[in-house]
Amino acid sequence: MLAVRRKQSELDKIVEALLFSLVFYLITLPLFGNTLPLSWRALDAKHPDVFEVVVQWKHLATLAGLALVLGIVYASNINYDLLARLLFKIGIRIRGSRVNIWNDALEELEGFVQVGLPGGRRVIGWVRDFSDEEDVYELFLESAAWVDKDGHQQPIDGPGILLTKESGIEYVTFLHEGEEHENEETGNEPPAP
């Protein structure tokens, strides 16, 4: 749930959960005398057919803590491409774990943007949130304004604008704060996509 990644089938999820469980048990079993966190034993010698369940709470707590910590580390690696960045610094280039270039760009270059829409319409604003699903390109811009063909801004009343897939986003230009205002004053239009 913490990681932004490609969609998985149910089988993928089960296999991943089994692999993580195996790793967690391999790490914790030596620490607890190679016993499982849940076991059973005969109640006493007189009643060998009656068993009681023994719960090793420290082992369960260790597994839960390990799952939490490694889950956060794993999600951080996927969301921020930590392993790919580390390998890149030592000269090994691999494809990152992010879903697509949309996520790469918006994670790395967050901030003030101009979005081009069909019919030459443009809107500017601060990227507050963006979709992380493959093939769903949506943005929420706060402090947004429409930009007319002369470069004049018409602020959008309210907290912002949600540009959905249906709005037909054609391009996203990443701007420095105030760049649109500077272009308006000098008469220079930002370059067409």
What's the layout of helices and strands?
Elements: H1 10-28, E1 38-44, E2 47-55, H2 57-80, H3 82-89, H4 101-108, E3 112-116, E4 122-130, E5 139-147, E6 153-155, E7 160-163, E8 171-175, H5 179-186
Antiparallel strand pairs: 1-2, 3-4, 3-8, 4-5, 5-6, 5-7
Detailed description of the structure:
The structure is a single chain. The protein has five helices and eight strands, in the order H-E-E-H-H-H-E-E-E-E-E-E-H. By secondary structure, the protein is an alpha+beta fold. The strands form two sheets. Strands 3, 4, 5, 6, 7 and 8 form a six-stranded antiparallel β-sheet that branches. The chain is elongated and about 95 Å long.
Radius of gyration of CA atoms, rounded to a whole number: 26 Å
Strands, count: 8
Decide which structural class fits the backbone: alpha+beta
Fraction in beta strands: 25-35%
Shape-level CATH architecture of the largest domain: Roll
The low-pLDDT segments are 180-193
| Element-level helix/strand string | HEEHHHEEEEEEH
Give the mean pLDDT.
81
Helix content: 25-40%
Shape: elongated
CATH topology grouping of the largest domain: SH3 type barrels
Distance between the termini: 35 Å
In summary, what is this structure?
With 193 residues, this protein is of the alpha+beta class.
List keywords for this structure.
alpha+beta; 6-stranded antiparallel sheet; two-stranded antiparallel ribbon; 193 residues; SH3 type barrels; 5 helices; 2 domains; 35% helix
